[in-house]
Design goal:
Layout: H1 5-19, E1 23-28, E2 34-41, E3 44-51, E4 58-62, H2 74-83, E5 87-93, E6 99-107, E7 113-121, E8 128-133, E9 136-140, H3 176-185, H4 191-198, H5 204-213, H6 230-245, E10 252-256, E11 260-265, E12 276-279, H7 283-291, H8 301-331, H9 333-345, E13 356-360, E14 371-375, H10 382-425, H11 430-443, E15 462-465, E16 471-474, H12 478-488, E17 494-498, E18 506-508, H13 517-529, E19 539-545, E20 549-550, E21 561-562, E22 566-570, H14 574-581
Antiparallel strand pairs: 1-2, 2-3, 3-4, 5-6, 6-7, 7-8, 8-9, 10-11, 10-12, 13-14, 15-16, 16-18, 17-18, 17-19, 19-22, 20-21
Length: 584
């Protein structure tokens, strides 16, 4: 059930209305991740199914009775002890997150009523079901130790802590203009990522829908938006939030073809109109329909590869930040040596057991004596403190060269993956997507497919004719980029590429003619169009003769260096690009 917090809200409302006041008659655990609660209401028995399956977590009232193991698992026995014969007091959603609290009143000693809470966290591979009392964890269907998470352990006796990210805005409680203002201020690269980072409970589906309703591409860069766009985005937010606040829910399941469920939402995702949209009267009915598809909801190949690349880029970005910080510390190693020298020069006045001391700075360049505060280890002598500073200095100097190499390698990998992401965003045919998948396999980012399957013939690069008759060749992925640059282009052909921006290699064939400024302008627009800056204005494009383009030894596919270049700034014109790509 790939449902975000916004669409989960009406489902929780329906479950609360149907189950509140019901008595928990029986508890079963059909598999290691799932629970089935039989809830008795006047005149009917309801089966409340909860699953923390990492592949497909869900929450619904079901008519299906799954097979139960002969011996109940320990967690099931624990729940029977704590919850059976209790009454469901309420079912509520925490904020707008994918966290649902089932509050159950049970009778204890001397007739005293205690409230136990069953928390269902619907969060993909981090999904869990946790039993609490007074916010203390009794047990969970999946225990999380300090080896798995240093921030948040889920273990018996621990206090329950909500997952991180609870400080974001609730789109249903926040003024739309205020929400959009926060979105525009978010430190994100694209609009959809900024929406997700700003609003709690907003997943990729809702973010793309908000961008689409506002008239923007979800991948548009934040630098290309300004305060003038607040109105359009505010209207898009209001169009969804106001309906849900007024209870005007339109449960919808998006299916590709007949058997590929793509998404489920409490509103109609207009940007997915090209697929089959199934509408239902309740969210429960939508979830039940969605749940009938076997296996995990399949993703289109392009979207699946996009997720893989995005995850790798995010991992490398974090690594780059850590390495940069370590390198910054290593570059300040001389300060450690200076501290050691100052300690050695002042050994006779250092107070034993002090944790810091102001000492004469022997490196001061001023005529007057200057003091500097040196941090000390109280357990060490003065000379041992100095030796410790020298040891840290030597270690930092040794690591500096190693860190520079690691940082360069990390940046190279980032640039390479960003080039693949751009190629994938521009890929339309399945053959193009398969080529990119094969490149990822070769690079070791994903596993190879069945080797018995025949590989498809490689696609030829895109070829167009400028309005004044020059042939332009465009590489749409890294394999094609190397092909057009080093196999098909001649030394006097013009080579173009967006400056410091991932994109396609573009070649203008000279054919022993002087290449016109018009041809260079149109080819530059094609280079900008088939780059990461497709939606931007004034995109810098470098161009030079092919003879000045070289590939370093051992470089990754698509990577080149060049010189003797000129730079032009162009804005891709949709009308012109359309005429070049689809000539009459």
């Amino acid at each position: 059930m790939n449902i975000d917090g916004l669409s989960l809200a009406p489902l929780v409302g329906e479950l609360n209305a149907a189950l509140t006041g019901g008595r928990v008659d029986k508890v079963f655990q059909p598999d290691p991740y799932s629970l089935l609660l039989w809830v008795r209401q006047p005149g009917e028995n309801l089966r409340f199914f909860l699953s923390a399956n990492p592949e497909r977590p869900k929450l619904l009232i079901t008519t299906t009775i799954p097979e139960n193991p002969a011996v109940a698992p320990n967690f099931c026995m624990l729940l029977r002890k704590h919850l059976e014969d209790g009454r469901i007091a309420s079912i509520e959603q925490h904020s707008l997150d994918r966290i649902v609290n089932v509050n159950i009143d049970v009778r204890g000693e001397r007739g005293r009523i205690f409230t136990k809470r069953l928390v269902i966290e619907i969060m993909g591979k981090y999904s869990n079901i946790i039993l609490l009392q007074d916010n203390i964890i009794i047990d969970s269907i999946k225990r999380v130790s300090a080896h798995v998470s240093r921030y948040r352990q889920v273990l018996p006796g621990k206090e329950y802590i909500y997952p991180p990210g609870q400080d974001r805005l609730n789109i249903l409680d926040t003024d739309s203009t205020q929400f959009v203002t926060q979105v525009l201020a978010a430190p994100a690269t694209s609009l959809s990522k900024a929406i997700i980072a700003t609003g709690i409970g907003l997943g990729p589906l809702t973010a793309r829908e908000l961008a689409w309703r506002g008239g923007f591409s979800p991948d548009i860069r934040m630098n290309d938006l300004d305060t003038a766009d607040i109105g359009a985005l505010s209207e898009a937010v209001t169009s969804i939030a106001s309906q849900l606040k007024d209870g005007l829910v339109t449960p919808t399941v998006v299916v590709e073809g007949q058997d590929k469920p793509l998404a489920i939402a409490a509103f109609v995702p207009e940007h997915l109109r090209q697929y089959n949209l199934h509408n239902f009267s309740t969210m429960s009915a939508a979830v039940d329909f969605f749940d009938k598809f076997k296996g995990r909801p399949s993703l289109p190949a392009k979207e699946l590869l996009t997720k893989i690349i995005a995850a790798e880029i995010a991992k490398l970005t974090r690594k780059h930040a850590v390495l940069s910080e370590e390198l910054s510390q290593a570059e300040n190693a001389d300060e450690l040596r200076k501290c050691g020298d100052i300690l050695m020069a002042n050994l006779y006045i250092i107070i034993p057991g002090a944790d810091k001391q102001a000492l004469l700075d022997i490196y001061s360049e001023t005529s007057e004596a200057q003091e500097i505060i040196i941090n000390l280890n109280p357990a060490l002598s003065a000379i041992e403190n100095a030796q410790q500073y020298y040891t840290k200095y030597n270690k930092a100097k040794r690591s500096e060269e190693h860190l520079i190499g690691q940082l360069h390698e990390c940046q190279t990998d980032l640039t390479y993956l960003e080039s693949i992401a751009v190629a994938l965003s521009h890929a339309d045919a399945s053959a193009e997507i398969n080529e990119i998948r094969q490149e990822l396999v070769t690079a070791g980012y994903i596993k190879a497919a069945d080797k018995r399957r025949l590989s498809a013939a490689p696609l030829a690069p895109l070829s167009v004719i400028t309005t004044d008759g020059f042939t332009v060749i465009i590489g749409k992925n890294n394999r094609q980029n190397d092909l057009v640059t080093f196999k098909q282009a001649r030394p006097d052909d013009i080579w173009l590429h967006t400056k410091d921006i991932p994109g396609s290699h573009v070649i203008i064939r000279s054919e022993n003619r002087e290449i016109s400024p018009q041809a260079i302008n149109e080819a530059s627009q094609l280079a900008a169009y088939y780059s990461k800056s497709r939606q931007s204005a004034s995109v810098p494009v470098d161009y030079t003769k092919r003879r000045y383009v070289r590939k370093p030894s051992g470089a990754k596919p698509g990577f080149v260096i060049y010189d003797h270049q000129n730079t032009v700034y162009v804005t891709p014109e949709e009308t012109l690009i359309g005429k070049l790509l689809n000539p009459q």
